[in-house]
Automatic annotation (TrEMBL):
InterPro entries: Hexapep, Hexapep_transf_CS, LbH_SAT, Ser_AcTrfase_N_sf, Ser_O-AcTrfase, Serine_acetyltransferase, Trimer_LpxA-like_sf. This is Serine acetyltransferase. Pathway: Amino-acid biosynthesis; L-cysteine biosynthesis; L-cysteine from L-serine: step 1/2. Its EC number is 2.3.1.30. The keyword Phosphoprotein does not apply. Keywords: Acyltransferase, Amino-acid biosynthesis, Cysteine biosynthesis, Repeat, Transferase.
Length: 246
């Protein structure tokens, strides 16, 4: 039954969601909880989902999907009523987020705008991602299929993830590749997306450097005096210190 116990649970979850917005959104500093509930679309979307999920769980027809559609129109976030979402969930900026029917999200997870937790093909059963606790997913990332993203993992902006991600791993690229930032694992939801390494660019740089080395050897062996080796430039120069501290 959708009784007092269910209402109390939903209220507790909403309080933790609002606390998550205070903790993870710099724009929420000094802002009251009522204002966050009234003007943070990510929090509003999660609140609507809490209610829709509760109605879905007790078998109420029509209402859960209707509430989900209204929430999508109001907030720009689409969450299927059957999706399972833990406490302390925060969607920053909210717009364009899609969370599929069989998605499972743990506690203290952060998503940024444009994230998709989607399926692949027309398979039945579990077909959407599982995000364990303390996962952070950057803007525009696409997580597809019944994959598992381990505890504390970070998914870089615009990354496409189609395989399982080990715990405490940072993944970037398309398709996603596990990386480390300056030899260290980033901690917390405030990962500095700008300074994440690019494994594809790094591989191309290594290939360019190897070609330049071979060209120099050919020049030396041929005795040619003309220098034909082109300068190898970084594909993605990054200026300034890393505010995330590595």
């Amino acid at each position: 039954m959708f009784g007092l116990g269910t209402v109390a649970r939903v209220v507790g979850e909403v309080r933790r969601d609002v606390a998550a917005a205070h903790a993870r959104d710099p724009a929420a500093r000094g802002v009251g909880s009522i204002e966050i509930l009234a003007s943070w679309p990510g929090v509003q979307a999660v609140l609507a989902h809490r209610v829709a999920h509760g109605l879905h769980g007790i078998g109420v027809p029509v209402a859960p999907r209707t509430l989900s559609i209204l929430s999508r129109a109001w907030t720009g976030v689409e969450i299927h009523p059957a999706a399972q979402i833990g406490q302390g969930f925060f969607i920053d900026h909210a717009a364009g987020v899609v969370i599929g029917e069989t998605a499972q999200i743990g506690d203290d997870v952060t998503l940024y705008q444009g994230v998709t937790l989607g399926g692949t093909g027309f398979q039945t059963g579990k077909r959407h991602p599982t995000l364990q606790d303390n996962v952070t997913v950057g803007a525009g990332a696409k997580l597809l299929g019944a994959i598992t993203v381990g505890h504390g993992a970070k998914i870089g902006a615009n990354t496409v993830v189609i395989h399982d991600v080990p715990p405490n791993t940072t993944v970037v690229g398309n398709p996603g590749h596990p990386v480390r930032v300056e030899g260290k694992r980033p901690e917390g939801p405030d990962t500095d997306w700008i300074h994440l390494p690019d494994p594809i660019a790094d591989a191309i740089n290594r290939l360019s450097a190897r070609i330049a080395e071979l060209e120099r050897e050919v020049i030396e062996l041929s005795g040619s005096e003309r220098e034909t080796v082109a300068e190898v430039r970084p594909l993605r120069p990054v200026h300034g210190p890393n505010p995330a501290g590595g």
